[in-house]
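Researcher: Please translate sequence to structure tokens.
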Amino acid sequence: MKKLSGWQKAGVVAGIGCFSIVGLLVIGVAGAVFWARSTLAEYGDTTPTRVEKTIALQGSVAEAPDRSGAKAVETKGIEPLRLDIDLEEGQFIIRPGPPSSQVQVEGTYAENLYELTERHDADSGRGQRTTIRFRSKAPAWARMLAGVGSDGAGRPTLTVLIPAGVPMELTLRVSVGESQIDLGGLTLRELGLDLSMGNHQVDFKEPLVEGLRRLQLSARMGNVSVDHLGNARAQAIDTSGSMGNLRADLGGAWKPGSSADLSFTHSMGELTLNVPTQVRIETNFSSSQGEVENRPAATKETDSPDAPLLRLRVSTSMGEGHVVRY
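Model: Translation complete:
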């Protein structure tokens, strides 16, 4: 047998070392997965089941319109209800429900691993606040490792129906998952959206009743898109984003002759604003990398004095900003 040279011996030793490291990693991962699944087993049966729940909103409101929409209700001057929805880890759908004073929640998840809770608190002399929360009971590391090798079939799915015809101030937080949110047609006075760590799609498919005083959006560590933002009819929009991409379409049924202040601050990602030529804009752009890219439309912006006026302020850093007219 031919004697190995020094370099050949070194190669053999290095190869054995690499295979040993790979073997140790495989054994370590397998042990971690076993430990995680053993930890989850302590919580009992983890088989997803169908869950339905109805949550009554606290406070006094005017009679909601009937399901046919035949009964019109004057909502101006009515003290709005306050609703917080806090969802984490799963696939979520949030959309308008039938007129009532209740929130309907339905979905599929393992009740031993996740919990859906409600709470009703006094809100500093402003009436009652209803909080709906969906959270995991088990530690995040155990759920993550236990899911190694699975197809994600046990991931929670939840649909939340927000009642139409009820004046409210809504705060919606969604994290660690995916969401499809449609708030069109609701009666909202104030709206706060906190979307993070996932892919989130927000839409206002129909104009809001009355329109918003203020909309606040926070987008972090994920991709967020907002469509038909004009249907929100907000007097002021304040948006901040970081570590992800944010796309917003400012089209929709802005009220003729109205004006709104819109602020978009974004860092470490790409910001894209699509603005229709049917609205007038006054712009204030700033960027740490230079000017925000402003792409003119093929057709000229409207010069109608009744066209809505958007005072648009855009600030970006460590990323790109685009304002696209269409």
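Researcher: Any highlights?
Model: The first strand starts at residue 49 and ends at 56.
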